[in-house]
Q: What sequence folds into this?
């Protein structure tokens, strides 16, 4: 088992990564609490209820995917915790993908004005979402617009959960693995592309996942509330979220398309050939990402969604993370007119 | 105008109290923000839309009373803020009684994972609720079970708002004024009883309100997250909340009955005549509090509600604040059996 600790001034937590570590590691956390309540993704429950989580009684089940992140599902989740007699001295253990993690973490944050919780990510993507204390549900105006910063007490990433993950979910989760490689170094990207040239297999990715976790932890420890460098984790996400919202495709797929757009715009802004766009287009397509969606984007609708993004503070620009010639991310405001032009130019280039 | 500042290590805020201070004081706050959104209690809006708040365009109105604190009303409130294009750099100004303050503050806390807000209390009770950063909505399992700690950036208490407050609301708000006097000193209680011997008038209470604000600020600055002394502010509230929930009477009325029960139990626990129960019964009745409800309490139902209280951590006791012979509040756990007996004994004594 590998362990990483956040580096906040206080209230730090550990991220445990390994195989078959769930029960033993959890025990270490639960001992200090009066009682433990479980929130479990319905699919994870179906797969593991006779094995690794068989000791869990009366879990609160969440519906698969974004259905867990509606206002109604969320309020029901909170009511279910209260129904089970949750106290301030209880521990909530949230077991599932990013959606369950987001809704469950937010529920722990507002129930009784905040109870402690543990994240147990079960998808590839959730190596990312389970770390950093961001929790959220969706609004009719956009994704993740309602939520809280609420640090988990610990994160237990048992890679054995990934064995039952369907292929599309591996593909989706890989979007964030790829993003973390981009934020890490040019070398990390090359290594990752080599590892996945023949397709993505979770078991080939363990080193890259661990590197990804470290990259994520670095940024969230540096800037918990996203007033500065944490924004860089948004690489690919501003347009990615808009695409996800419009086309209802998985988060990581949308992020990957967003990363491609980021590369396109970065090349144009820095007037360089930093990214080999053709190679990337081929690589992403071969892996199975729906690159054809990029050819159908309606720039004005995309802009409308992007302007709803929490990170945006001004009316006539869109905040965007790009990468410079030194392979470093930077934040910039792109005028709305220019952004429309970039999206059009990208469509034509494909 | 009087001004008081919290004494946290950082992020302190000022409570401004005075007559006709709303607009000028607000200006001082709004200048630093990109835009300002208003959440206004529907009754306050009806009373003041042609005068002191006439400059406010497109406010989000909240329904009067606890109707503002249902899950549905709350989610609609958040969606309305998003609908109006709220950004992280926006300021939310919440104008109304404790219910609007609680729902509005909680909405500010979770919209975009938190935006700044100002409390503008307009009821007598809200001299209390607007201070301390506790926000909440109600659950089907009890009051205020879903919420957040979210400090306002400032509190503007313009006493002119109180002029339109209906009598029952004055009576309700007085419950917290009385509680603060109890927490303040025996002298403060005597003074307050003298001031109100002939009935409660808001204009006679200004000094007591200001003392109440200082008492509240002392406790919330000392112990923001209620791990210690802040619990004392719960004087009268454990049973009070249960009564409020069961009988649907105003918060302050229920608190006053809860304070009477506290006096009854304190006298019994300390085996003293600290409180003159008969005099208090007469005084509360004369002012118009529904003391007769105390004679109808179902101890077992009351216990059930009390056990749902956030402050309770154990199954066979109820956490309760009492007062000792030195007129100091203290926290104690009362066994459930004993509590049932106390409620029965109090019923018989009335
Ligand atoms: N909080 C953050 O910082 C953050 C960061 C990135 C993404 N997110 C959020 O994460 C969500 C996406 O997360 P996700 O991709 O994990 O999606 P998800 O949680 O919807 O899970 C994807 C699917 O896999 C199933 N599943 C989960 N674990 C499984 C397992 N071990 N075996 C079989 N099936 C399993 C789920 O039931 C679901 O059907 C989005 O809502 C996104 O907004 C949050
Ligand atoms: N957050 C805290 O620390 C805290 C502390 C105590 C109470 N509370 C909460 O406060 C709430 C009770 O507050 P409240 O007693 O102010 O009730 P309220 O907000 O329901 O207001 C009472 C009534 O007065 C009306 N009103 C408000 N201002 C008015 C004005 N100036 N003129 C005429 N009418 C006006 C309202 O529309 C409502 O009908 C409860 O929900 C309670 O849980 C919170």
A:
């Amino acid at each position: 088992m590998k362990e990483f600790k956040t580096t906040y001034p206080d209230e730090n937590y550990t991220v445990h990564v390994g195989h078959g570590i769930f029960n033993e590691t959890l025990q270490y956390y639960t001992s200090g609490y009066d009682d433990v309540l479980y929130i479990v993704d319905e699919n994870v429950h179906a797969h593991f209820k006779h094995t690794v989580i068989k000791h869990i009684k009366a879990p609160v089940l969440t519906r698969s995917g974004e259905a867990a992140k509606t206002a109604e599902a969320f309020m029901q989740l909170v009511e279910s915790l209260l129904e089970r007699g949750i106290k301030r001295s209880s521990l909530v253990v949230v077991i599932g993908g990013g959606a369950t993690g987001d809704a469950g973490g937010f529920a722990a944050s507002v129930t009784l004005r905040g109870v402690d919780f543990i994240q147990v990510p079960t998808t590839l993507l959730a190596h990312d979402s389970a770390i950093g204390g961001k929790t959220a549900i969706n609004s009719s105006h956009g994704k993740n617009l309602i939520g809280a910063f609420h640090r988990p007490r610990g994160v237990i990433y048992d890679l054995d959960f990934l064995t039952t993950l369907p292929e599309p979910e591996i593909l989706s989760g890989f979007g964030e693995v790829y993003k973390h490689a981009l934020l890490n170094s040019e070398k990390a990207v090359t290594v990752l592309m080599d590892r996945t040239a023949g397709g993505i297999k979770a078991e080939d990715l363990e080193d890259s996942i661990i590197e990804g976790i470290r990259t994520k932890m670095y940024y969230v420890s540096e800037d918990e509330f996203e007033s500065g460098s944490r924004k860089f984790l948004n690489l690919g996400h501003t347009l990615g979220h808009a695409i996800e919202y419009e086309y209802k495709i998985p988060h990581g797929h949308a992020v990957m398309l967003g990363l491609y757009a980021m590369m396109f715009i970065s090349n144009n802004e820095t007037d360089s050939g930093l990214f080999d766009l053709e190679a990337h287009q081929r690589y992403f397509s071969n892996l199975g990402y729906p690159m054809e969606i990029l050819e159908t984007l309606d720039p004005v609708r995309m802009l409308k969604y992007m302007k709803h993004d929490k990170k945006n503070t001004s009316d006539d620009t869109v905040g965007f993370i790009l990468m410079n010639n030194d392979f470093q991310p930077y934040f910039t405001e792109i005028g709305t007119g220019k952004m429309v032009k970039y999206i059009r130019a990208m469509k034509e280039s494909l």
